[in-house]
Predict the 3D structure of the following.
Amino acid sequence: MSSWSKRRPNILKAKPGELRARWARPDEHNGPDVCYAWGKGVNHCDGSLLATVLGTPRARINLSSPLGSPRYMWAAYDESLLKELEKRGYDLTTIQFSIMKKDI
């Protein structure tokens, strides 16, 4: 197999001051998924925030149980935003998000 036919993994990278999310491979050992990257000057916790908002099941207050029921006001969970978008017919392999940090 020649070297030109070997496909390099599509690993997501970010510019300095950039926070990104898109469909990519996290590294050469894993399959593609929604990946997050942050450049120099961006704290990793901002990447975690974006991953949590997009990929974590969303908590809501359960008001469907009868008033006075032990389950009234307990947390219930909806699909993550990514799962909800996929369920509504969106192609997650086309997702792209990029934001630059302000110059302060």
